[in-house]
Design brief:
2 copies of one chain form a homodimer.
Chain A lengths: L5 H12 L16 H16 L3 E4 L5 E4 L7 E7 L12 H16 L8 E6 L12 H6 L5 H6 L8 H8 L16 E9 L4 H4 L5 E6 L1 E10 L3 E2 L11 H10 L1 H8 L4 E3 L3 E4 L5 E2 L2 E10 L2 H22 L2 E10 L2 E2 L2 H13 L5 E5 L4 H5 L5 E6 L15 H20 L3
Parallel strand pairs in A: 3-4, 3-5, 5-16, 6-15
Antiparallel strand pairs in A: 1-2, 2-4, 6-14, 6-16, 7-12, 7-13, 8-11, 9-12, 10-12
Helix pairs in contact in A: 1-3, 3-13, 8-10, 9-10, 11-13
């Protein structure tokens, strides 16, 4: 039986990592940037070099399949964009491994190759417009068009301008959704991006579900005043109220659910003078858990706590919902299929929920979807120190090949 | 006897408040900004319109005096710059009142007018480069040139670039110090910027001393990581460590001295992504008290507390001293002179220490210096709601006129 060409897989990963490569070893292929588009062109070229047909949809997702194939397809792949100062595996690994899987099937003249399509998704990371998953949302007809229309990137450039410069447009984006009807299932291979597999000595893990991600922006209003002349007792210090709330996030979350996580990644005090009591403070809060009810309880509890703190400090708080991606359950039959593929390789896969969002979360709402993880060294991701050893990268692709074969054989 | 022209004083204050005026009624004349420079040109024009000679030194302090006068002088005035989103009286009141005092002496053909000089100082607030009092420090030959050379403003513009654009330069700044030898005393009229006069029904207060102001910038280093995949137990969250330290500032300060105050006015988390655990956090801490030993105890206790917190969070902290203005005692004879000036008006002045820093703190290290306060409505300052009623504004200027006369008559 033909198997994955490990050297070719690793060489392709290295070749792609040269595109958007930074002097510190990191990668910057911010969605729809010049480097990202160059990465997409590289992926399409490698697809064609394998004798496959490459196609780019209106969201700039890049697809590959046999020229004569007509579906329905098992879709497999991941995203090609990266966070700024990220590394070469997040997303790229699943897309390049998918290409290697289909190449292997084609070389083996496996008739199942006709039932397989591969994909490199657009803007999964969401750094450009603070939305994310836009490639898979476009494919699944779930685009948040209103929000995207109003969005500007970090440099203040309007989303439509970015899209037009990349070769598409806001108005065309929804066309990508026509293809969904041709898909029978989705399989995504990805690095874990966390420390749990390494801690448990797992080589492969089947993902049971993907956490829901709830993002809010809070605004605390107090009274701006002179920091030298206003006694503590007469202050309404928005900065102090915010700091108290932020300082208590971990304890609050852990008291509700030990597996939930939350993050305050952005904070600003206004007007921002060393000698001015902050009249306003703003901060973001992100909450993640695989059970929607737990997310809700944490969000509610934090709001109550913040209100209480604001009452004590003579301030007022308001919240704005930035985004809510509900938790996604992976398909049970597909999970078993993935586990059996691992067993074929003599591996016992663990089961894990994913703390990171993935294109698979979007696809899972439309077709049976499964995900497979390989370990991340030190659990590091979204940073230049992200790494997975070569053996695990090849092992993951070999398991994906087997799972794709079984899934393809089951298409009616 | 000629007296202050209250209407003219109030009209001048209104005219100056049009420069850098904001739609919300606030004022933004950030040091050396276009609005600040416009305010200085306005002040120089009003000086010349009074038949006086206007002079700008290398620090862009604006002086006014009779053309034929040669000193030594009683200097009186305050600063012309404002905090962003401040209001029209902080600083401007003392400068405009000084102009009205000298105008009144000139109109009365009082020979003492020759012994009086007025000033509108530069960058007292210190918002631009987090240093402050730069105009009076330049006049007194105390410029922190090293620190200023390295400073950048909130937009990242280098201090020298700002100065050159404003019409001077770092290299020229020290020239301002030549004038100090011509000064015999300094009198500064200012709004209280705090709630104590109103609470005690004081119409005028003589300042006994000015708090020492200690400013530091703290930097907490943790580990940047993925907020969805990194369990709380494995995080080194620089944002959380900073928030915990900031949340405890009030309790820590109050446990050491009930009259001390402190403020955290600036906070930033890096890299500043909603889904990225902060790998770094920075914040400012300002501590004020009229006893240097109390300031030292608070600063030391906070550093120990922050280190402890960082140890618990797996982070590291470092501190940079931004500035240290020691407490200043006002001159006893000048204080009595100010009290007698108030008595001439049928007023019994209170005595207060000042929680706000003032140019008078710098001048007091070189010449006999005194300060007079009028009340601030609600104790509000550094905010658009800052206010003092017209009667108090005129009363303060009348007391200043009398004190200037007595001080000038005593010059040997």
């Amino acid at each position: 039986m033909n198997d994955i060409n490990g050297d070719r897989l690793l060489a392709d990963l290295r070749a792609l990592s040269d595109i958007g490569g930074l002097p510190n070893g990191g990668i910057d292929r911010l969605a729809w940037s010049e480097a990202d588009l160059k990465g997409r062109r590289w992926f399409a070229r490698r697809i064609r070099e394998a004798g496959l047909e490459a196609r780019e949809d209106s969201a700039l997702n890049v697809f590959g399949r046999l020229p004569e194939a007509s579906g329905p397809f098992i879709l497999t792949g991941s995203h090609l964009d990266s966070v700024p100062n990220g590394r070469r595996l997040d997303g790229a690994y699943g897309a390049v491994a998918a290409l290697e899987v289909l190449r292997t099937l084609v070389e083996a003249r496996d008739p199942l190759a006709e039932r397989v399509e591969i994909v490199g998704f657009s803007d999964e990371e969401g750094v450009r417009f603070s939305i994310g998953l836009l490639g898979s949302l476009a494919l699944c007809g779930e685009l948040p068009l209103e929000r995207l229309r109003d969005a500007r990137d970090l440099d203040g450039v309007r989303s439509d301008e970015v899209l037009v410069q990349a070769g598409t447009s806001l108005d065309r984006l929804a066309e990508a959704g026509a293809h969904l009807a041709s898909l029978a299932a989705f399989l995504e291979l990805h690095i874990e991006q966390g420390p749990r597999m390494e801690a448990a000595s797992m080589d492969l893990a089947v993902v049971t579900g993907i956490v829901g991600v709830h993002r809010q922006q809070f605004r605390v209003i107090g009274t701006q005043n002179h920091a030298g002349t206003t006694p503590f007792a007469l202050r309404h210090d928005a900065g102090r109220a915010a700091a108290r709330a932020i300082a208590g996030v971990e304890e609050l979350v852990q008291s509700i659910d030990a597996e939930a996580v939350a993050n305050v990644g952005i904070v600003r005090f206004y007007p921002g003078g060393v000698n001015v009591i902050p009249g306003e403070a703003s901060f973001s809060l992100e909450v993640r858990h695989w059970d929607e009810r737990v997310v809700r309880r944490i969000v509610d509890a934090f709001s109550r706590r913040l209100e209480e703190t604001c009452r004590e400090e003579g301030c007022n708080a308001s919240a704005e919902l930035l985004s809510w991606v509900p938790p996604a359950r992976m398909d049970e039959a597909t999970m078993r299929n993935l586990e059996m593929a691992c067993q074929e390789l003599g591996q016992t896969a663990g089961r894990l929920w994913s703390g990171a969002g993935h294109d698979a979360a979007v696809l899972s709402r439309h077709v049976p979807t499964g995900m497979l993880f390989v370990p991340s060294a030190g659990g590091v991701s979204h940073a230049p120190a992200e790494a997975t050893d070569d053996q695990h990268l090849v092992l993951g692709a070999r398991a994906l090949l087997r799972a794709v074969r079984v899934s393809a054989s089951r298409i009616k």
